[in-house]
Design goal:
Shape: elongated
Radius of gyration: 16 Å
Helix content: over 70%
Number of helices: 4
Largest sheet: none
Distance between the termini: 29 Å
Oligomer: single chain
Structural class: mainly alpha
Strand content: under 5%
Amino acid sequence: MAFLNVGLLLADENPPRLAERLEAELHTLVDAYDRRVLGEPYQVFVEETKRLCGEQAMAG
């Protein structure tokens, strides 16, 4: 929801490089979510899970 709100606000302003700014905002929001929910960035979580559980745990 936060990304949608930011996107709408930016779109109203129609700044240069809108797509790049939206992508940066999305990455920031996803990273913050991962840190809050997983306790660390997603890639760190995946690597730690692989180390602890093995590759097969991540294969599904």
